[in-house]
Structure formats: C-alpha cells, structure tokens
Amino acid sequence: MLAASAFYTARCSLNKSPAWTETLKFHTGYAESEIMECSKLLALHHSRCGESRLRAVYKKYSKVENGGVLLLFHQPSLS
C-alpha cells in the first residue's frame, strides 16, 4: 500500500491525469479510494521535510547542482 500511495502521490505532484488508472489499480490491487489517506499522509510529511531534523538532506537535494529534484515534488496537489 505504501508503494502504491507513493506512486499516486508522485503522479498527483506531477499533475498526471488521471492520477490513478484502471491499469494501476489492476497491477497494485488498490483502488484510488483505498490509497488516498496514505497518500495524504505522505504528502503532509513531505511538505514538512524542510522543518525536520533531516534539513541537511533537504538542502542538498534542493540545490540545482544536485538536480533540484526535491523542488519538483515539494508541494503535491492531491485531489
């Protein structure tokens, strides 16, 4: 469930439409409604990552020379 929720959260962050498909449901075994709560928790924890004890990791992956990958996913927009 965690993996499916993380995948769903990433798709929402990237504004993929639809965020969850019948193919994803088939392969994961989860309907969108079943992973929504876990996905919201993941997004909440992710949005607070700059405030956590792991600030060094947050800063490292926010830098352009490290690809700025963290900034791509910093504010997921869940439906």
From TrEMBL:
InterPro entries: Cyclin-like_sf (IPR036915), Cyclin_C-dom (IPR004367). Pfam families: Cyclin_C. Residues 1-66 form the Cyclin C-terminal domain. This is Cyclin C-terminal domain-containing protein. It comes from Brassica cretica (Mustard).
